[in-house]
Amino acid sequence: MTGEIKEFIKSIAISIVAAFLIITFVFEGAIVDGFSMIPTLNDKDLLIVEKVTYYFRQPQPGDIIVIHYPANPKEKFVKRVVAVGGDKVKIENNKVYVNGQVRNENFTLEKWMNNFNEVTVPKGTLFLLGDNRNDSRDSRFPDVGFVDLKLVIGKATFRIYPLKNIGVLKSQKG
Questions:
Q1: Which of 159, 166, 144 is nearest to 70 (CA)?
Q2: Residues labelled catalytic
Q3: What is the pTM of this model?
Q4: Which of 21, 34, 68, 169 could form a disulfide with 151 if both were Cys (CB 3.0 to 4.6 A apart)?
Q5: For residue range 3-26, what is the model confidence (pLDDT) as tens digits?
Q6: What are phi and psi of 15, to 5 degrees?
Q7: DSSP class of residue 138?
Q8: Distances in whole angstroms, Cα of residue 136 to Cα of each of 25, 121, 139
Q9: Rg of the chain's alpha carbons, rounded to an integer?
């Protein structure tokens, strides 16, 4: 083998390793599949999911995150963090309460929601809801439930498609 071919193969190998490390530890792409995050995100939106933040801190209420679906970890879900371990959550009279305080949720699609009895979020887990509360499979359902922090892939930080909606995704503290 000539020196040029060896250098070419070495360059390809380094590129593959670098791409693997970036996708594993820094960021990856995700496509929204469905309508559970309308009006914030739409079906087929292409997102950048940033992973570094959660190496240093846990997800916070208001963050839009991508998780492995607990019932089938090969699937990914995009949801909003509503409460973290130790918080008490309930839905009553079309309002979400966290630790007894009403969340100001001007980012949701519909104002009507079914009531949900108060629960305490276990340590090491999250309570997630979609912004389209009446068309979202989220922590209110047993197959999702409280989401273990180990299932969090990262924080959805940027929409890159469609181009007319390109931009930074902001957390909504509520």
A1: 144
A2: 36, 79
A3: 0.86
A4: 68
A5: 788 777 777 877 777 676 666 666
A6: -65, -40
A7: S
A8: 28, 19, 9
A9: 19
CA atoms within 13 A on the CB side of 35: 4
3-state secondary structure of 113: coil
Q: Cα–Cα distance between 151 and 96 in angstroms, integer?
A: 24
> For residue range 53-107, what is the model confidence (pLDDT) as tens digits?
999 999 999 999 999 999 999 999 999 999 999 999 999 999 999 999 999 888 8
Task: Measure the CA–CA gap between 135 and 132, rounded to whole angstroms.
Answer: 6
H helix intervals, the chain: 3-25, 53-56
Helix (H, G, I), strand (E, B) or coil at 163: helix
Distance between CA atoms of 89 and 54, rounded to whole angstroms? Answer: 23
Residue 171 main-chain phi, psi, to 5 deg: -70, 150
Beta-strand runs (E) in the chain: 27-31, 46-50, 64-68, 76-84, 88-92, 95-98, 101-102, 116-120, 125-129, 147-148, 152-161, 167-168
What confidence score (pLDDT) does residue 126 get? 98
CA angle in degrees (0–180, nearest 5) for 110-111-114: 95
- Decide if 46 contacts 158 (C-beta within 8 A): no
